[in-house]
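Please, structure for the following, as tokens.
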Amino acid sequence: EHGAAHLRSLTNEPGKVELVYHGLDLDRFPASSARAGRKGNQEDPVVILSIGRAVTKKGFDDLLIALAALPDSCHWNFEHIGDGECLPELKKHAQELGLSDRVRWLGAQPQEKVLDHLRSADLFALACKIAPDGDRDGLPNVLMEAQSQGLPVISTRVSAVPELIEDGETGLLADPGNSTELMHAIARLISEPSLRRKLGSAGEARVRSVFNAEHGLDSLMIRFSS
């Protein structure tokens, strides 16, 4: 909507600008009843998953700081899927923060493995932010992919992310670059399994009804054929 509003401001015919979300091909992400449901205690730590290229705009440095600040009462492990130019630096940062024994860097993975990890994790976190050169995410596919599997998500108020994630309803949001807010959101989901289930179910329902790629493709087909 932010982009659509900008385009409307540039034309004398704003009514011709219509927002069509690119959405998710749900045939590639069928619903699954598999959900880890770990308790988040010492015997059963939750698995926090994040997926994305290791670049500045993804905010993985902020996420590591948030993880390091979690209280001792939170029991967790973190998995990252993806390659990227910042990966060596992030691994070093995790080591400096004392997180090495809780973090798994899985590198790039094929789609079927990504799906397996989405279904076996307990919550998904992506700390999007605006890079110094202005680079930013629009609407990250991985957030929709996580929600399609009933996984509760935590992200930030950047670009169209709040159009996907309704804070407190279909996920939790923090301000970009605010590791303290991220930490509190993660701690809350670790300690409240019932909230994880609630946000996961609500997020999945919304993705499948509002962000289904078929809806957008149907809309485009009508316009291109008229």
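DSSP finds nine helices and six strands in the chain. Residues 68 and 97 are 6 Å apart (CA to CA).
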